[in-house]
Amino acid sequence: MVRYLSDECFSGAIVIALKAAGVDVVRAVDICPASTDEMLLARAFEDGRLLLTEDHGFGELCVRLQLPAHGVVVASVKALTSEKQAARVIEALAKLGDRVRGSFVTIEPTRTRIRALNRS
Questions:
Q1: CA atoms of 88 and 29, how far apart (whole Å)
Q2: E strands of the chain, at which residues?
Q3: How far out from the chain centre does Cα 89 lie?
């Protein structure tokens, strides 16, 4: 089962919906509040979790700087209503399954992009 850590800015409504759908997700605000992006990524890695965020800046950390990560999922769904945002993220994660591991994933309203994180 894929486990997630959501950053502090990630939608609480989506986290609640993910939990209701049986997804193992914890919130950074509950376990490591006020962490920098680098600290949050490190915490997710240490805990064996993938990071859930709405911040595209994690691409810089994971792709260009190649900081350790089990995977990052960016939910770029603000154009949808709150209810549809949660449904879209749940649907995308369900379809991706374990393919999110080791990947940088961007979930958009009408498509999902997945890029393997290159590791030496």
A1: 23
A2: 3-6, 24-27, 50-53, 72-75, 103-107, 112-116
A3: 10
In whole angstroms, give the CA distance from residue 48 to residue 2: 9
Token pair of 76 as six digits: 């770029």
For residue 115, list its beta bridge partners: 104
Q: Could you tell me whether strands 3-6 and 72-75 are parallel, antiparallel, or unpaired per DSSP bridges?
A: unpaired
- Please write the tens of the pLDDT for every residue from 62-103: 888 889 999 999 999 999 998 899 999 999 999 999 999 999
Strands 112-116 and 103-107, by their bridges, are antiparallel
Query: Which amino acid is it at 102?
Result: G
How confident is the model over 21-73, as pLDDT tens digits? 999 999 999 998 888 999 999 999 999 999 999 998 888 898 888 899 999 99
- CA angle 29/63/69 to nearest 5° reads 45
- The domains of the chain, with CATH numbers, are 3-116 (3.40.50)
Give the DSSP H or E segment for 37.
helix 37-46
CA-CA distance, 6 to 25, in Å (whole number)?
A: 7
